[in-house]
């Protein structure tokens, strides 16, 4: 009997030692998991979990009433029967920012590429800015360079909409819609559309990559590069966190993935309109981010990159209303005293005037969006301008603002504006 008791006691002691060793090993493994950095290539499929408005989250502390470690999962409240540590804590911390693992797709619609189709052909005048362009009554005169009947002033950007084209050994010649013949190079029109549509307001902010790059691991230029991920220009990504750094604003777009303001443009939407706007339908333009956002029934339905007025031809901040819509418009003008910034643009598509000569419109001569380039108008890709043209009505409100405060707000600063 005594031998049996000794044997039974030995079994209990051995079991206790095995359990202690297992718990110690599990604790060490958990610590390693917490401190480990994810490795390997990452495919971007962002999550749609949390609101862009931050909310207080409960702090999960080790449960003193339990020795158990929770299974890997998200624990928004203390489970009490286990300790949400290790993988559980890691997943829960990600979820607080809206990041899921594995990640979920960012839900946004693309507009129909057919919206980029226009019934116009464009040609660019590839000559020195200061050079005037002779216009001719016939192709023969244009090819020979004789008998010009009119001249087009020198300028920085000059395009014509043409009806006929002849390619000769000595160059390309087009007949403009006004009937003149001139030497010009037929221009390719971009069918790229940057806008995104939404059936309901997204669960978090989002934005566009302005220039292709590998993201940073931390919101710090010295925080290391995440070489497992690369984003291309114009990729659309969710924003899970925003950090104001010493030299720039940082946007978290994924796990260990941060982009700086130089390389990213964010759609920081707000479905509550300014007091001056009556009703739930308006257009917002964020001049700092170079993003246009459209709201219908107090919900975000569309957003796109734009190009607004460059210094000193800023787009005027304020609240305006669309007062005229035109399928196409010829635009010309200059603002410098020496007329060196003269521009001439035929058949500018989908024009919507909202502030004197300032308008939303398609810009077939632009290749990039996301930074200031115009004389005050809001330039968009043709397809994006077409979408807005179809949605907008005369009388719709336009709210234009610059959160950075860099754009002058005194109305006395502004003239008529232009393309």
TrEMBL record:
<comment type="pathway">
    <text>Cell wall biogenesis; peptidoglycan biosynthesis.</text>
</comment>
<protein>
    <submittedName>
        <fullName>Lipoprotein-anchoring transpeptidase ErfK/SrfK</fullName>
    </submittedName>
</protein>
<dbReference type="GO" id="GO:0005576">
    <property type="term" value="C:extracellular region"/>
</dbReference>
<feature type="domain" description="L,D-TPase catalytic">
    <location>
        <begin position="281"/>
        <end position="401"/>
    </location>
</feature>
<dbReference type="GO" id="GO:0018104">
    <property type="term" value="P:peptidoglycan-protein cross-linking"/>
</dbReference>
<dbReference type="Pfam" id="PF03734">
    <property type="entry name" value="YkuD"/>
</dbReference>
<dbReference type="GO" id="GO:0071972">
    <property type="term" value="F:peptidoglycan L,D-transpeptidase activity"/>
</dbReference>
<dbReference type="GO" id="GO:0016740">
    <property type="term" value="F:transferase activity"/>
</dbReference>
<keyword id="KW-0133">Cell shape</keyword>
<keyword id="KW-0808">Transferase</keyword>
<dbReference type="InterPro" id="IPR038063">
    <property type="entry name" value="Transpep_catalytic_dom"/>
</dbReference>
<feature type="active site" description="Proton donor/acceptor">
    <location>
        <position position="361"/>
    </location>
</feature>
<dbReference type="GO" id="GO:0008360">
    <property type="term" value="P:regulation of cell shape"/>
</dbReference>
<feature type="active site" description="Nucleophile">
    <location>
        <position position="377"/>
    </location>
</feature>
<keyword id="KW-0573">Peptidoglycan synthesis</keyword>
<keyword id="KW-0961">Cell wall biogenesis/degradation</keyword>
<keyword id="KW-0449">Lipoprotein</keyword>
<dbReference type="InterPro" id="IPR005490">
    <property type="entry name" value="LD_TPept_cat_dom"/>
</dbReference>
<dbReference type="GO" id="GO:0071555">
    <property type="term" value="P:cell wall organization"/>
</dbReference>
<dbReference type="InterPro" id="IPR050979">
    <property type="entry name" value="LD-transpeptidase"/>
</dbReference>
